[in-house]
Design a protein that fits this description.
The protein is mainly beta and 108 residues long. The protein has 1 helix and 5 strands. The strands form 2 sheets. The protein has a 3-stranded antiparallel beta sheet, covered by helices on one side. Strands 1-2 form a two-stranded antiparallel sheet. It is globular and about 40 Å long. It starts with 10 loop residues before the first strand and ends in a 25-residue tail after the last strand. It binds zinc ion (2 copies). One zinc ion binds at residues 86, 88, 91, 93, 97, 101.
Length: 108
């Protein structure tokens, strides 16, 4: 056992991401590299019954925060919303996220 928590990394099928909904939530502008792929849960490893949270679009520096998807393991259904960045250090997770900050978890 090491002391470092692990990141969840559950995957949301990118073919199922509702990009039109994402564009509604925040119209951009976006560049091709702004689409996160794969979409992976960024939280510290958590019980399977809890929702996964992963970035689906990165916003540029003039638009703080990122576009996040929330989903449960299963059918690919997900919610999409714009969330502010976590204010702690260089954490790349959203403000108010559960678990450890991104710089505290190991990324295999
Ligand atoms: Zn997860
Ligand atoms: Zn954080």
């Amino acid at each position: 056992m090491t002391g470092r928590p692990r990141v969840c990394r559950a995957r949301l099928d990118p073919a199922r991401v509702d990009q039109a909904r994402a564009a509604d939530v925040h119209p951009g502008p976006y560049a091709p590299g702004d689409m996160a792929e794969p979409v992976l849960c960024a939280l510290e490893d958590h019980p399977a019954r809890d929702a996964h949270h992963g970035i689906i679009r990165y916003l540029d520096l003039r638009s703080p925060g990122e576009i996040w998807a929330t989903w449960h393991t299963g059918d690919g259904a997900h919610e999409i919303e714009h969330r502010a960045d976590c204010p702690e250090g260089d954490c790349t997770t959203y403000a108010g996220h559960p678990g450890a900050h991104s710089w505290q978890v190991s990324r295999p």
